[in-house]
Amino acid sequence: MKKIGIIFALKEELDETKKLFKDTIVHSIYELKIYECCNENVTCFLVESGMGKVNAARSTQILIDSMKVDYVLNVGVAGSISRDINKCDIVVADKLVQHDFDLRPLGYDKGEIHNVGKYVNCDKELIELAKIIKIETNVKIGVIASGDIFVTDEKMGAKINKNFGALCVEMEGASVAQVCHLCNIPFLVIRAISDSPYEKNNNITFEEFLKISSDMVSRFIAQLIERIK
Predict the structure, then answer these.
(1) What's the CATH code of the domain at 147?
(2) What is the DSSP string of 7-39?
(3) Is 81 within 8 Å of 169 (Cβ atoms)?
(4) Three-state helix/strand/coil letters over 115-183
(5) Is 98 helix (H, G, I), strand (E, B) or coil?
(6) pLDDT 10s digits, 154-185
(7) pTM of the model
(8) Is pLDDT at 202 greater than 80 in this prediction?
(9) Annotated catalytic residue within 12, 13, 123, 226
């Protein structure tokens, strides 16, 4: 039976996904709650990491070391920085970059990490499984950029889009990717789009969006884990 670690940015999304399973065992590791959920085909370990790259990286390593997971999924929200990505779309990463990582004085490119590279690629098989999932929203595959900064300035978002080809920005995914890459664990990062600077007349509140996105993401994950063998 495969073991899948699922890291959530928000508790609401974790709670919605937990409804997919009948039985839950709660583990507490370094004061981090991990929910072990089983069905006949798979065991999932759900955890709310907290915001930011360090929290996400910490949770990823704990799942790998303590729960011996075979795969890692990272789920959350992101802001669009592309005119092709709208609110309530889902973006599945094919690769990730840390847009705030900067070793240029040492001769590296912006975002390039020593002994890792600029981009970290998601698992090809998981990407292919994600492509065939049917859900009533637009699903796009592309670059997701992560950084420990809330990108609210349209010009900054446009710069990140130009420099890295990123479709959206958030605060966790690339650190999850780096840990999984270093530990040779297949992973995938999935983001629901909470806002777009290019949609001026969208009046949906974040609370309304979170309810919609939590439902969408849980159904997306349900289809994905059914296909993981």
Answers:
(1) 3.40.50.1580
(2) EESSHHHHHHHHTT-SEEEEEEETTEEEEEEE-
(3) yes
(4) CCECCEECCHHHHHHHHCCCCCCCEEEEEEEECCCCCCCHHHHHHHHHHHCEEEEECCHHHHHHHHHHH
(5) strand
(6) 889 999 999 999 999 999 999 999 999 999 99
(7) 0.94
(8) no
(9) 13
Residue 22 CB neighbour total at 10 angstroms:
8
CA distance 189 to 7: 9
Per-residue pLDDT tens over the stretch 54-74: 999 999 999 999 999 999 999
> How many structural domains does the chain have?
1
Domain that includes residue 187, residue range: 2-227
13 catalytic residue (yes or no): yes
Token pair 């073991």 in the structure block, residue: 3
CB contact set of 194 (below 8 Å; sequence gap of 6+):
77, 78, 79, 87, 206, 209, 210, 213
Which one of the listed residues 89, 94, 112, 195 is annotated catalytic?
195
Question: Which one of 170-174, 207-211, 215-219 scores highest in mean pLDDT?
Answer: 170-174
Q: What is the chain's Cα-based Rg?
A: 17
Asked if 171 and 53 count as a contact pair (C-beta separation under 8 A), the reply is yes
User: Is 195 annotated as catalytic?
Assistant: yes
